[in-house]
Every structure is written in structure tokens, then in C-alpha cells.
Amino acid sequence: MKELVEYIVKSIVSYPDHVEVLEEDAGEGDIRLNVTVHPDDTGKVIGRRGRIVQSIRTVLRVLAVKQDVRVSLDVD
């Protein structure tokens, strides 16, 4: 899942070298992903009214159901 988020976010931003995705196991089948981007790219990842980040979360939710886990995504 980490690789998928990294690929999607790097495709969107202007500074792909500054993208960092940290995957943290929160226990009991929960996975927490923290995405850190260049300050100028934060708006691009979040999108208007949060539509871009919501779309990424939806794709992750589909993948998580197939792997029988729960996933959360935070953008810093």
C-alpha cells in the first residue's frame, strides 16, 4: 500500500523528491500511512475541498478490503 500511495502522490506533486510515505502498524489489522510533501505541494495532494485525498483514501480502502485490513491516510 505504501508503494501505491507513493506512486500516486509523486505523480501529482511538483517536487516528487520531497515525498515521504511512512507506514505504521497500528495493531489489530490497522495500518496508518503518513504522507509528507513539500509545503508548496500540500494543496495539490489535498485538492479542492479534499477531493484528491478522499479519492486516494477510496482506492486504499478497496485495496485494504482485499487484504482484510483497515487503513488510514494522513497528509502533513
Please describe the topology of this protein.
Layout lengths: L1 H11 L7 E8 L2 E7 L5 H5 L4 H17 L2 E6 L1
Parallel strand pairs: 2-3
Antiparallel strand pairs: 1-2
Explain what the structure shows:
The two termini are 18 Å apart. The chain has one domain (2-75): GMP Synthetase, Chain A, domain 3 (2-Layer Sandwich), CATH 3.30.300. The chain has helices spanning 2-12, 42-46, 51-67, and strands at 20-27, 30-36, 70-75. It has a three-stranded mixed β-sheet. The longest helix is centred in the last third of the chain and has 17 residues, at 51-67. A hairpin with a 2-residue loop joins strand 1 (20-27) and strand 2 (30-36). With 76 residues, the chain is of the alpha+beta class. The radius of gyration is 12 Å and the shape is globular.
Order of helices and strands: HEEHHE
In the CATH hierarchy, the architecture is: 2-Layer Sandwich
Secondary-structure-based class equals alpha+beta
Oligomer: single chain
How far apart the termini lie comes to 18 Å
CATH hierarchy class name: Alpha Beta
- Give the count of helical stretches: 3
Biggest sheet statistics: 3 strands, mixed
CATH homologous superfamily title: K homology (KH) domain
CATH fold name: GMP Synthetase, Chain A, domain 3
Number of strands: 3
Low-confidence stretches: none
Shape: globular
For the biggest β-sheet, the strand order reads 1-2-3
Rg, rounded, reads 12 Å
Strand content: 25-35%
Number of domains: 1
Helix proportion: 40-55%
Average of per-residue pLDDT values? 95
